[in-house]
Every structure is written in C-alpha cells, then in structure tokens.
Amino acid sequence: MLLNLSKNLQEIYNRADAIIIINKEGIVEYSVTKNPELNTYINDSFIGQHILDVYPSLDENTSNHYYVMKTKKPRINTQEVLTDIDSRRISFINSTFPLQYKDEIIGTIEFSVVESIEYLTFQSDKVEKASFTENFVTQDKELLVLKSKIPQIAKSNASILIHGETGTGKELIARSIHDSSLRFKEPFVAINCAAIPENLLESTFFGTVKGSFTGAHDHKGIFESANRGTVFLDELNSLNINLQGKILRTIENKLIRPVGGQTEIPIDVRIISAMNEPPKDMIAQGRIRRDLFFRLNVVEIYIPPLRERLGDIELLTSYFMDYYNRFEFSGQKKISQLVLSAFHHYSWPGNVRELRNVIHHGYIMTNTDTISLKDLPNHFFNAEYVEKSSAIDTSLTLKTLLSNYERDLIKSVIRNSQNISDASKSLGISRQSLRYKLMKYGLLDHFSSR
Description:
Helicase, Ruva Protein, domain 3, globular, single chain, Beta-Lactamase, 4 domains, alpha/beta
C-alpha cells in the first residue's frame, strides 16, 4: 500500500506545475513553480506570505487548504480559477493533502497543474494620462520624463540597469521597454536571481546536456530560451561573483555553453537587469563585479520609493480601488479620507506593491462600502514603519491604537481648519460624525475657543 501511495505521489509530483506548502496559520512555507523551458522548479516570491494574501479571491470557506486542515481529508483534482497578487487569473487543477505530525495537522501541501493564465490589465479614465504602462501609474515629474523616453530607449539594443527598492515597479519598466522594442514579438524571460537555488544557478542560466550529471536532460537555459528577445535579471546583486563572471563573458561573446556541453551556442539577447540596493554600495561591498556593472549600466534608470513621491499615493489608491471595484469584486466601495490621510503618514517600505496589498486587504475585510482604519492590516500600525507620529506602545490593543491614531489625525486636521465644516470636508466625514468624534476625544474646545 505504501508503495502504491509513493507511486501515486511521484506521479502527481511529476505532473505538477506548482507546489505549495502552508503551515497551520496559513503562512506559505514553501512555494515553487515549474519552468517548462528549463525543466526545473524555481522558487517564487510567495514564501512568508499568507495564502489568502497570495490568492485574494479566496477566503477560509473557499480555500482547499483550510478545508483540508479542517476535515483532515485530501482534496484530489479539484478545478479552481483563482486571482493572485500579481493580477493573474489562473485556472488550476489542484490536489491538496494534509500534513500531519503525530496526531496534529501542521499544514497542507498542494500540487497544481496550470491549465491557463490570464494577465488582468485595464485602462482607467482617471489615470490614463499619468500611466507609465497600463499598470504603472504616476504623476511624478521624473517618472513622467522617463515615460516619454521609453520609446527612445527601446529602439536601442543597449543593456539597461534599473535600480530601486523592492516593490517600485522595476519589472513593469523592463517589460514596457521590451514591448516597445523591435524584439516585442520575441520572448521576454524574467528571472529572480535570488530565487534560484545555488546548485541550479549555472544550469538555469546556460542549460544542460543529457548525461552531464545524474538525472540531467537536454534543456535550454534562460539565455537560449530568450534568444532574439529580452532577458530580465531581477535582483542581480544576489548572484555569486563566479557566476557574474560567466554572465559577463556571455554578454561580451554572445555565446553560451550548456553544462556538460562541448560546443558553444550563439545567442542574441538584450539584457535588462535590476537591483534593489544602490549599485555603488554593491560594488563597494564586493557583491557586484565592477566590470559587469559597467557592461550592464549603459542606460541607468532609477525608480524612487513611494515615500519620496507622495503625490502618487492618491492617484495609485484611486487606480487600485477602481481595479478591485471593476474586476475582482464588482462593487462600488470607496476609501475613507482618514485612511487616505494615514497613507500619507506611512513610509511604505514595500512601496507600490505594499500599497496595493494594503488596499486589497482593506477591501476584503470591510463590512461596509467604505474602507476605514479598522480594516487595514495590523502591520500598518507598527511603529517601525509609521513616520511623522510618536512611537507606538506595543502593549496597547489594536482598538486603542486605532483610536489614538484617529484622535491624532483629527487634531492635525483641525489645527489647519477654520471651522467644523471645513474640517469635516478635509476628513471626508459629515459634520455630525466629526462633532461626535470631537466630543469623544475631548477636542470640541479647539473650535469653541476660536
């Protein structure tokens, strides 16, 4: 029986396009996706996130993982159409199994076969004039200048280095350059260098020849798969120095040699690379070869963090709310002015990606047609990330923290308002609601004393 079970699991594993393991708290502990060109599994960026954040279209009642943990029974070959945090609508056939230690269910493992992937994009009238690409929204002057230069940059085959913090939209820019170039009909192959296991780095980039090592098959590496197209090397600064030298030789010679191969293969690719840390610091620390940096840095693009372009927050918020209203939830929800004001006091360490996820969380959690402070995730109120406010006492309850934040925000608004009507308009609430809150927080005298 164990032999049959082992064979069944091996068959499922061989067929799987993706494998994910979550713990009993719903946190992703392991997540890989098969790259069919490379015939190997690549780690993705979901590890450490909650499964309901990875697939916002799910909840505890519709998730296979929660069902299996609750019933302790597997679910085999169930068809699901899910939307993930990268705005992809994916049709899966999933097989989900409980993971048990002694008598306790400690999590689940799910094997998925992908039937189709649809990338969801839309054009909003509110943001059309400020769009970098369909999914890159800004009114920042520097980014708008960059937008205007994308067609000019795309015409060239020069290497491009994009740097900026995580979540600023580096891949969107890279894809926009590819789509605007003469290579637009050819492959765009994006790889997160930090997600590749150390022992698979060379075979992932250069491919393998059958028999070069135990279990090796003939398969193309990233460079050969992207031939005549574009390779996007994200988080280049995570690659080891030895491999950086081999990539440099590939760029200079336009030749690759697969692992175990005897002959070199000519390639024609454009290289767009990205770093999430300042390039000069990476060179100084010895994490990036100086010669590779100068080879890749023909055109340099810097994407400023969201905290340095606060003018984009309201525009992005409108964009994401419009998206969720139209495509995911078919609702007409809005965001309160208090939340919008709070967004301007937050430092956004995860940048635009985090803003999108915070709004998505609020959209899911609210029981009304308006997202309020209580609907935001707990980490939003962490003192490590909130700027322009006093340190937060972590011994306080979330309810108390929200009340304190609301009180301080109202105090800040009324200091710059002539009367209650003026303040209520700024806060986006009625005069009656504001008067109640002023009485609640003992702030009514701020107006009566004027």
